[in-house]
Queue: 4 jobs
Job 1
Amino acid sequence: MIWDQERRSKAERMEKAAGYARGKRVGTEEIVPFLESVIRSGDRVVLEGCNQKQAAFLAGALKEVNQGKVHDLNMIIPSISRDEHLDLFDRGIASEINFSFAGVQSRRLAEMVAENTVKIGAIHTYLELYGRLYVDLTPNVCLIAADKADSNGNLYTGYNTEETPILAEAAAFKNGIVVAQVNEIVGEDDLPRVDIPGGWVDYIVKADEPYPMEPLFTRDPARIQEAHILMGMMTIKGIYAKHGVKSLNHGIGYNGAAIELLLPTFGDYLGLKGKICTNWVLNPHPTLIPAVEAGWVKQVCAFGGELGMERYTAARPDIFFTGKDGMLRSNRAAAQVAGLYGIDLFLGGTLQMDYEGNSSTVTGGRLSGFGGAPNMGNSTGGRRHTTKAWRDMGPLTGSMASGRKLVVQMTKSQSKYGPAFVPELDAVKIGRKAGMDAAPVMVYGEDVTHVVTEQGIAYLYQAQNAEERTKMLGCIAQGTPVGSMVGIGEIEQLRREGKVAYPQDLAISPDAAKRELLAANSLEEIADLSGGLYRVPEQFRKQSE
């Protein structure tokens, strides 16, 4: 029996590509024929597409390979965020995709699935996808991006490492071929630090332009609404303070941004500094800067970087994880693990929630995927360390009394698209139509402990059964169909029992939810509070001019 077929295959591919490489370096202009040499039809190919850092040069080159030579690829793209990612399917180069998040490509992806142009292997959480790289989706070829490389293939990923190491390792130690596009090739002694050793990397190529980055997690305070502020006030007092939440993650959105900007004002008023919101797992949101500067934040573990925050994170090494070069070290896989096991609370927004509390961002005409929300919004049974917040969610009695993570979903009770609460998620029908064995639910209702709308808080962890959960949701969605399922008497009873809280139950006046309560009302104000370290990204500067 032959035990090293994969190693032999790799050697054959590299021999075929020898004419395009000088040592580990491949010429920029030779990248297309080079890829045709190392990639075979039917391969599993990882293409780095993080939330921000993109192997855009390699994506564009892969799109140009001869479909007669390379086809039917199984693409593994954590975040589908570029046109080239889906162009591969239009051109017949790829046939199947496994991913976590689609974002701006969600509408196009939905259309291509409906047209049978794309076959979805599965929509994963980030950790799930990374895990499968080491089980049954191990890549034959891995295409990644880095800031700098030396001639030995050592990589410096700099401010935005994200998921590059875990992608490379899965291929490097299973005889896959690892190709890195870099912004710059430097001398052996000129790398600020080594983030990925050259022994993991087979080829490097200088991209024709630096990889693109977008400020995907930046939210302009100028767009925060009074409803967000009211929900933020209720969350701080009715959830964070009530349960003593110190370690947490905020998902992307204006709800979380409002809370971050309320900590140095409303939070100070309540005397909560040092008692809540000290340890964070999140991208370095600029809206967290006022809380950092006011002494609220002890430590931040970052999934990735955020455009404009480079100098600020470098200047705050007590808060952020940094390398010897002073630059942020992010790690998406490690941060996902921290979010799964290390935090007490996940707060996220949702586009749609059913009457049982299940929610999804997969809605009509969109296949957005999940990213890391199901990892954050899941109370894993593997946790063993205890905190007050975690214990608050568990049973009060019993020799095996345990706890669970707080999972908070925030949404307005209705929007211009209609009620946020629906009898059945769009995801159920979409999943069925796409041939999925399971509906693409983002967070299951059984994991949700709190739901916050502009009307109040439903403490779902106290619900005795599914029927009561629905009634509690109806209490905070009055004026919608689910709201009609609960009577006035039932609402008052649930309020008395502390299972539902309206603003007045928390001694919060909706009239106080004004923009003046925010610690900053624009990104420019945040830049001033940072001492000029934060640089407002150009696209936001244009919006404010």
Job 2
Amino acid sequence: MTAALDDAEGTEHAEDAIDVVVVGAGPTGLLLAGDLAAAGLSVTLVERRPRTAANLTRAFAVHARTLELLDARGLADALLSTGQRIDRVRPFGGMPLSLQRLSTRYPFVLITPQYETEKLLERRALSTGTDIRYDSELIGLAQDRDTVTLDLRRTTDGARTTLHARHAVGADGVRSTVRAALGLPFPGQAVVRSMILADVRLTEPPEDLLAVNGNADAFGFLVPFGDGWYRAIGWHRDGRDQDTDPVGLDELRTILRTALGTDHGMHDARWISRFHSDERQVPHYRRGRVFLAGDAAHVHSPAGGLGMNTGLQDAANLSWKLAAVLHGHAPDPEALLDSYHRERHPVGRLVLRISGALVRSVMATGPVRRTARSLGATVLPRIGPARDRALGLVSGIGISYPPPPGARRPAGRRAPDLALAPGPHGQRLYEALRAGGFVLVTPPGRTTPPGAPLAHVHWRTGPRTAARTACVLVRPDGYVAWSAPEPTDAELAAAVAASLLSPATIRTAGPAQKA
């Protein structure tokens, strides 16, 4: 497969093969590159933007599951210090919906600008040895059975570089050059036109931390970052159609007065932009040695604040699988790589449905639809199962994957932050996951499967903790790979061997068994 995207001129040179090239240094690409480099792989991250360019984009909400994944990398506390926690919402004037019901260390939404998340992930990527190349754009991509070849052009002087990699990942956004080079379609439609985003200050802050409302004519949204700035979103049914049309603070004030009854004394916008929102998803997240993640694979409305979170969770799912294959730890490399699409494509489709339903409720016309929306905002908080499922899906806590062949639940489900006996890997599961590999949780006294490259930890015991006899194998992304109530040593060793090869097995494997 080949794709030539440009006939660029300039000096050209080729470089030695590296393990993975990631295209796109947004949150998804940065997390992925940092994970791969932390696993000891050679990683180059390519970004067309200059290093100093501000990236004031529309993402601002970090949900509970994403915070758990950051916790598993030792990053959550640093990000928490940059924003505002919101633990309840009152949609469309309905009853408050408490996020404190979420069974997680992070029962809230963190409101922080996307650039704060990016700064944190960039520091980590650099600290783990990622080669980040800003001012570099992808102009051609080809792959064969063994190698991905990527042609780059430096935007400052036109110099050309060719990279050879064992795998490549396109995390380069909705206008993905990688997706275009693969010839993959991006079917879908525009769902919202002429929505306005801005970061503003307010003279009269709302009584609730999050102010949101919509009516027959307009929708308005205000949420604090915690440092005096607010993210404002406004949409009017009679708004302009083109993203390039001029936009000013007066237009946004008018929309918020229509939707919220007041503009809360909005002033001093540090940036303001008009955009449209699409619902699209690529049919395949993998083609050969190349993968797509984040907005390159799926894009949807900003309703629910799910976009960046879904991309980061794509990255967490893919990174450990690539690392396992490239290090030769995967019993079935192709099946493991294929599982990225099998697990994440349905999640992307679900996110499209959730965000689509939310944005359509915002845009509801007619008294019947608006009454149904108001009734839902009032009734949902009262219905426990429906409320908890909705919170679980939006927060990511309730997302699960199909169990592997031959396995049964809870395999495929998110592992909670289990309490562990004090030891070198910490006192809870997400501390143990910081080692970047599988974690085996057993009662004290169980033997570690010989040669297994994993962290073996034990259940916490004590007067306030019930004795646990189960054994649980947790994947590097915090999902259960296998569990059994009281397995024999042979059953435990077989379960571990089904997920990862030991170094001894790798050394004696023939070429067909290697990645």
Job 3
Amino acid sequence: MSDGRLPVQRRWIRWVIGAVVTLLILAIGWVAIRGISAVSEMQAVASSASQMRGFIADGELERAELVAPRVAQHAATAHDLTSDPIWRGFEFVPWLGANFTAVREVAEVADSVATDAVAPVLEIAGGIDLASFGFTGSKIDLAPLAEVEAPLAAASATLSAAETQAQQINADAALPPLADAVREMRDVVTEAATVVGALHGASVLLPPMLGADGPRTYVVAMQNNAELRSDGGIVGSLALMRAEGGTISVVQQASTADFPPLTDPLPLSESTVALFAEGPGLYVQNITSIPDFTEAGAMLALRWEMQFGQKVDGVIAIDAVVAAHLLEATGDITFGPFTANSETILSILLSEVYATFPDPVEQDAVFAQAANELFAAALTRGDPQKLIAAFAVAAEENRIRIWSAHPEEETLLAASTLGGTLPVDGPRGPYVGVLLNDATGAKMDYYTEASISTAVGVCRGEPTTQVRVTWTNDAPADAEQTLPQYVTGNGIYGVHAGSVRTMIAIYGPEGANVRAVDRDGAEEGVQTTTLGTRSVVQHTVLLEPGESTTVTVSFTGTGAGDRLTRLQHTPTIGTPDTTRAEITCE
């Protein structure tokens, strides 16, 4: 007979199962509470870091120093909450594990940044005004820069490593609330790495480049985005600037009419010739078609020397949109019959000038006046903080290119975005790019717009990266009658007035191969070449007013299919709409 009790073995199994379930429930509760707290702490880090950045920019260092300990405390707490053995164990749970890994990794990044980068930057801010970086009028105080170079270097190295780690965190695998927190914290780290990296570069480069060891001269090339080139726009005017002891002045101005076409082209790289023939080597206007500014800058310097017999220390190329950013800091300028502000300058420079002055010689004179007034305003009455902000925004949009004739400086520039070199793939992911060059022979790109999408995935069993460019001609239907002939080209180069002819070049990751190419779903003849180890496909498209076309290129092989793929593109008047799309494998 049974006494109603379960056998000992069965009771033992029940106890074990009950204990396991209890521990599992406790563990889930443990990580849930800690996870919610960790996300809250990371949001506090992002909020406090943004607040501290604002205080530094406004010169309120005492308030920034009060916020800094809160940033460090929140970051350290988030790290502690996500680094215990129970949390690490949950990282191996199918489906959910990626959430725990993402939160832990971004908490580690935040703690590292708060500990090893925030304090040094605040110490630097006590010795130099980071808001204006010593800029007053037409002079930059170079003395403090040497003192802050070493601590900036350390902070920059910490932030660079943190950014690399942060970019490799797979936020897409996490649940939406966690993914948002990861992306927010990652954006903060990227912004901090960019800013501090730029400050460190400035502390190294500005003293010699601004004449701390003797006078320097630089050619400044103004690019017109209404006629697109790879680096921004056709070279419209040039100026010679002098820097000595931190003081900057404009000493000479020139127009492209001062640089007649050469009889024999200057030497060009094979890829430049393959894409643009010998035009960049013959015409100064076309030099910025060259996508690598180490080549383009050196050629602009050579053309200046050939024309005026004067060697220069470097070349700076900026586009018309930089003028709009600068006028936000300087206020209105007046040139010719125009008074321009940051809202109207692009319309005036890229459209109204041509309607008001049909004669190209008169146009050049007005452009020269505009450049002179802009430089004078920036050098004499610009608000320092706003000027620095304007240059920072322009640099972030890749609208400033700098080349130095001094090898040690050029090496540093080439490693930064200011150097205008082709991007280098690495731990932060591969690059793809889009180069836009006008072939209309006119100023019709004021009426164009682009949208660019990238997609990564697997097609036919191969990792694939897809780049899709949609190019639109938004000119009015009656452009032939209503727009100036200088703007439409009036058919001089075989393009009907109002239509736009554009060369669209798309390059893939380093080492990747072109798998498929189409335009609006159909194949057509294209140019192919390489930029370094990158495969390039170039379409030449012709659009009437109101027309649009879409070019798609798929790449396979090395670097393809990487979720960290990043995009670079020619800076246009309006910022192209860039998106990440779902890959299509038809």
Job 4
Amino acid sequence: MHIDIIETLPSLAKLEDNWNGVYDADDEAQIFLSWQWLNGWLSHLQRPWFILAAKAGESADLPYVAFLPLRLQNRIEKSDVVSDLRMAGNFAADYTGIICRPEAENKVIPAFARCIRQMNWARLNLENVRMSERRSRLLLACFPKANFNYTEVGRVNKVDGIDNSLCPYLTLPKDWNSYLESLSANTRQKIRRLLKQVDTPGEYRITVSTPETFAQDLKTLLGFWETKWRPRKGDRIESLVASNGAMLTRSFQSGMLYLPTFWNRDRPVAALATLVDPRKRAFLFYMTGRDETFDGPPSGVILHAFSIRHAIANGFSEYDFLRGNEPYKYSFGCVERKIRCTVLETRNGRNLGGGIDPRSIPEVLQLATELHRKGKSTDAEIGYRRILEVQPKHADALHRLGQLLAAKGDFAAAKRQFRILTTVRPDAAKAWQCLGQVCESLGQHEEALRQHLEFMRLQPDQPDGFVAVARCMAKLGRMAEINAAVLAAIEPASAPSVRKWRDWRPTPDRQTASEHSVSA
């Protein structure tokens, strides 16, 4: 089994038809692993992501038979860079997992696991994985407990006791009446009575978002949701509202969102966002919000019943309430499935292979730079060094590590970094200036002079270069040349015989015994 790694959006775009073919063939596939949903999510994901793609051989003509979306998250702690490997959909997707043609899973899943074991990570987060026991065993068998620590993470909310690893869902019948007959008599009568209130012209009504109304409907939904959850979510609420809004907008634009709003005359009192999977014929309830001050019919029951009826009428076969075993969900006749949250960690807490994945470089650089600015030089240094282990000529890491080493007085080590930097960025004046400065700190004034002259060549209008050159020449006893430069600088610019100081170039290796003072 051959594994390719897909890590750019253009490469992912080319796979749409292949991906959809695998998705349609896999009974375990669900909307958060659909090409359409993932393409939208990954296009806005800041951290590095990649997709393992499996096929039967290396030939470009062979189609892929399975896909596993992943992403990296890094942190610097305990004097090392520690990398987490996560499912790509985490923090937006209620479910994660693998899509695979069923006939290939016995070969594909162990091949995926072997590929993952060759990567640089300390923790593998298999979070919210919706996968059969058969597939889970195939995957986890490649991570023996003798080599990895296993933790099964519970998802019971401490505030309200809701178990978010339990996911209620309905298998929908062919018609609405058959569905109603599957419910208890009380629930059946209640739903009929409530829907009659919105079906009949009067005080209550339901509208469904259109391109013209979507922006306002979404604003209504998110406003209600924010009001309810702000006390619990705290400072995270703004980012959650923004990310949910962006995801739901992308879904609506792709035809994958059903958003009804419940009204009391001209007052919106509740809205419900449901993801629509036309390929698997599934409705997946994602988010609801309601006006907590409304004292009227139960808006949540009405909107769910309205949505279930719509799904049945349009030939959908499943209505999924997603994560959480809230009691009200079971009144609609649900059964439940369980998802898993398993964390695998290396025994020593360090990345496999000891280094970082090249895809992690931008994030590690950002983390190290932030620590550097906060004065946490030890952790910042390990971040820079981990980058340079992977990419020895990474200009920003070289520059910042050189600055850090110089600041703590290790001028010889700083010189090595800046020397490499001048070969990587020979046209960067700052690199030559920094190299000149550390040479001065080492007492190597002749060498420092050469670096400062190169800085002057690249930045002729910067007085810093002249000052540094003069300082070095003074240390070397070449005072007559400094006098000439100063006189050139203070003569009237209109004098045709005078060279401006920025055009002045001393000869670096010229020696002079002159020790006269600089002329005033």
